[in-house]
Amino acid sequence: MPFARYRLKGRMLCRAAAIGVMLGLLTGCASQSPSILQPVSPKGRAEADLFGFILAITVFTFIVVEALLLYAIVRFRTRDPKAIPRQIHGNRALEFLWTAVTAIGMALIFILTWRTMTAISTPPADALPVKVIGYQWWWEFQYPTLGIVTANELVIPVGQPIRLILTSGDVIHSFWVPRLGGKTDAIPGRENQLWLQADVEGTYYGQCTELCGTSHANMRLRVHAVSREAFDRWVEAQRAPAVSPTDPLAQQGYQVFMSKACVGCHVIEGTPAQGRAGPNLTHMGSRTTIAAGLLENTPENMARWLDNPQAIKPGVRMPRLGLTPEEIEALVAYLASLK
Amino acid sequence: MTSPTVALPRAHAERGLLSWLTTVDHKRVGILYMLGAAFFALIGGLEAMLIRTQLAVPNSQVLVGDAYNQVLTMHGTTMVFLVVMPLLAGLGNYVIPLMIGARDMAYPRLNAFGVWMFMLGGIFLNLSFILGGAPDAGWFGYAPLTAKTFSRGTGIDFWIWGLQLLGISSITSSINFVTTILLLRAPGLTMNRLPLFAWTTLVTSFLILFAMPSISAALFLLFLDRHLGTHFFNPAAGGDPLLWQHLFWFFGHPEVYIMILPAMGIVSEVLPVFSRKPIFGYTAVAYSSVAIGFIGFTVWAHHMFAVGLPDVVNAFFSAGSLLVAVPTAVKVFNWISTIWGGTVRYRAPFLFAAAFVALFVIGGLGGLFLASVPVDWQLTDTYFVVAHFHYTLFGGSMFAIVAAIYYWFPKITGRFLDERLGRLHFALQFIGFNLAFFPMHLLGLMGMPRRVYTYAAGLGWESLNLLATVGAFILALSFVVFFANIARSLVAGERAPNDPWDGHTLEWLTPSPPPPYNFARIPVVQSRRPVWDTKYTGNPHPRPVVEVLSGNGNKGDHNGHMGDHEGDSEEEHIHLPAPSLWPLVLAAGLTVFALGLVTHWIFVPVGLFLFALGMARWVQQPLFSETHKTSS
């Protein structure tokens, strides 16, 4: 592990200070938030530790400076309009002292910044590569070594470093899952690297953090960190082509999908649907959310989405298709069957 | 002491709309800047209220998608270019010639051109709302979102040319400040005696001169990309979107110091006066501004830590960003030491200036997190950043500007702003500001990105967002009180004497409001606090200006003063530049030309004609008209 050598002196103390101050303020809120102070990755922890260190310095400075200011304002208030104080123009020694102290403080922050940055910026050699392509307004995830293409939900094995190769199909996006560590931009024409690793099983919330147009706010994502066995099962399922529907309603939905505009934009492996403008739907039924993490993947939400995507995600390239309620019902059944 | 004979000019067309449209008096130009900025502040403030209304609760539908992005972009652009910068330029225009004992700015007509360019540029930018949609790619306008492919309307084009027009205004105004401060100082007013507001305005003007060309070039390239098929920022054709970011932030970060340095200068004037002490460590305060100006050009890529720059590059910009904290901290300690041991009076200017120090410290400390690369990877583009820069630009710049308005209002209008309303205003602004913006630090830590028009319920962001919105409305209310105070005090405010605050600097020698020529005789300066030293240390008076004008405090009543000859047999003539309409015509020409580039081509020749007309007549018109001799 690249982190064996990474040790921040007093990191426990710093984290205690950070969490102490912040939890005092965030009581009741923090537990449900994708908070950077509750990291579940080595990188996120390193960043939270450094945050805690700087927080300790800034809280100390804040208290000292504001106390001095407040004391001066209160202590030296005078109501006598004629009172003239002693005229002091400066004090070289004092001025040298506070310049030096500030400079030392900044140097300290810089040294720890450098150490932390170099310790966490390079992905471990055994990291699993995943290509991330940002689009307005959804994410495509390709696992080149596993032959999997999926969207908006990144599934990773717990404890396994992942090397994300970030790029964009249109404008600049930024990939961020706060509890797994810092963000990196997905820039068209470039490939950036970001590595992450989840040490605890769970689903982690993330979203795009670079203004990318109308529905920037609606470009969300999830990372599911699962056990190695669950991941292997997932990989196996994802590599299979889409299941053929058996239920009559889902069969009807298949017909609708293949005869309407859907095929122009979506891939469902093993079917004639090979459009590449939108997310790959081969295993849509296995995802927990739809519309780039905006809605839970329930039949009701899917029906709302198919009826009028623009009402849910303004500006989205998927048009209102004018589907009848019957067609929608059939499509919902078909998509749900694509496990 | 005998008073000199002075030939006092008659002000040209002192009243009426025409006199304002043709004015070249730095004081009127300053007032125009501030009135224009106040108007745009209403628009920018309204935009802020719309944003906070939309974000008060999750999944709100008040302002969605493109509409939100337009309001967001215009709020940022407006507050930076149409409120903070022109307010500081306006205050500088009004006060600095008075502070340095000058009769006007070095280039009075260029000065008038600057203010008209600002107003018309601001109107131009806001016209986009009714002419097909405002710009919506953020005030930073990252490529390639601004490319024609992704922004088809004319909003981005309005943004490009609006900023170009405003850039022209800023550059002319900066040339004027640099020349004025370097060349028109009163005798004896050495650089080491220069008032600190003039120092910081000087540094800011240099920053504008070096930073503006970068964004002007970038905007021009963007326009070529959008309309002439070039690919400077288009990755598909070998261009580079990151080039935009470098060019933008090479301007954009110095821009932050452009907005804060004059505010620091204001505070360095106000705190000493209300503590009845000199500024503590004048040299350090003055030269730390210069240091901030230099270091300010080595920090721009700290906006780009997440774009994938190499570690060494990130480290360099991290170091620069931390280094700039040193001269900044020096100033803070000097301000506190200035108050320390003084005899402090709690008048409104002092309250706002002291609050500036308290809030700016929070903004500065917040910046340390963002200067540290790994922490910035987490916090950049979150609400933590929104909190941080509002603490520096609102808690900082705006609080200082409000302090300045309370401080110089008696000089400008001859009347005090009401003190009780001032305290109410202060309480509301201080409480509202902190309620609105402090919670945003926490929202950022809790993972809320900025620039999102909505957010999901259940992520723990609801209560803090609601709190921020409540704070924002209290903040808005504080400005209602402020405007009411200004309106009331203009009509019925307590009359102010020439030197209402027991001031230090030369502007307090002049009547309130000052006559068009400022000083009947140019004062000679012998210390950093010429007015204070005259009152309290028995130093010789800078010059008997007050005596010359005694009893003639009212505007328009300064003619016909008589005095004895002093030494010279020559009478002293005051030359005031003649009013001119041509700066306005020139600015209008450029604006109409820009309108032609964005909307219909027919405006292009019209604009060029106005531009040529304004230019030609400006050149032909002599700067000075006849001087009216009024001495006996």
End-to-end separation of chain A: 35 Å
Give the spatial strand order of the biggest sheet of chain B. Answer: 1-2
| Beta-strand share of residues of chain A | 15-25%
Amount of beta strand of chain B: under 5%
* Main structural class of chain A: alpha+beta
Architecture (CATH level 2) name of the largest domain in chain A: Sandwich
If you average the pLDDT of chain B, what whole number results? 91
Number of strands of chain A: 12
- Stretches of chain B where pLDDT is under 50 for at least 5 consecutive residues are 1-5, 544-571, 627-632
Strand order of the largest sheet of chain A: 3-2-1-5-8
Instruction: Label the overall shape of chain B.
Output: globular
CATH superfamily of the largest domain in chain A: Cupredoxins -  blue copper proteins
Give the helices and strands of chain A as they follow along the chain.
HHHEEEEEEEEEEHHHEEHHH
- Which fold name fills CATH's third level, the topology of chain B? Cytochrome C Oxidase, Chain A
Helix count of chain B, per DSSP?
Answer: 19
- Kindly provide the name of the CATH class of chain B: Mainly Alpha
- Class by SSE composition of chain B: mainly alpha
Give the count of helical stretches of chain A. Answer: 9
CATH homology group of chain B: Cytochrome c oxidase-like, subunit I domain
Oligomeric composition of the shown chains: heterodimer
- Give a short account of the largest sheet of chain A: 5 strands, mixed
